[in-house]
Amino acid sequence: xxCPYKAIADDTRRKILExxxxxxxxxxxxxxxxxISKPAISNHLKILKEADIVNERKVRQNRLYSLNKEEIxxxxxxxDSLSAKQKGALRA
Length: 92
Prior knowledge:
By secondary structure, this protein is of the alpha+beta class.
């Protein structure tokens, strides 16, 4: 399993996540939104999947991708906790 924070360090992967925030999207539709090769998009999706940030569902010959909201909420919780700790340190 990859590191989710490393996975979102890339601009293209963050843009893919923005598209997926709209709902489940086929890989081909994701690829059509970029001016890079389909294999490159496939690699980005693989990294996001290995980091458990996105889910992949196979329907016949299509691969549909969606956000793994549980993992994203866990990341958000962690980042929010850092912010809360910093606010507490500033008050002390």
